[in-house]
Design goal:
It is globular, with a radius of gyration of 16 Å. The chain has four helices and eight strands.
Amino acid sequence: MKMYSQRLCLEPLEPYHAELLFNGLQSASIYDFIEDVPPQTVESLRERYMVLKRRQSPDGTEIWLNWAVWSLIEKYYVGYVQATITVNKSAIVGYVFFPNVWGKGYAREAVTCMINYLIETYQNLDFCAYVDVQNHRSIALLHNLGFVRSTFFQNVESSQNEFNYEIQYLKVHRN
């Protein structure tokens, strides 16, 4: 189901989005604070999106929800948002936006839209996000959305064989 906010359309992530998001995902600055690397090919990204399209983990214990974010203003894709719903009613949220739209409020608007949908659909969820301690933009976003700092993790090994420091942020919602 598509979701709309004032300036954005959140589209359920499909394999065809690989071509549409690939170039934006090539920007090296996106990966300064996340444990991922740019996709090597459109086909490898499409294969990843095929797995995510299943909307659940292989063991069935997690619900995977992912949306490509289309700007109604810019008329192109500006990133994606995601949530993993766990068996203990926790929603682990994540987001990636392309550098050319940083500072325009799209992340706040898209994550708010996603959280509102999750609250409406799954009711009593605890929201959680993990952020590199140096990712000041993301920390400011989470504070703006009502998340509070919870746990500090030292020496979190990244996919680039470096050690990072992360903070867990929480937001509790109860009806």
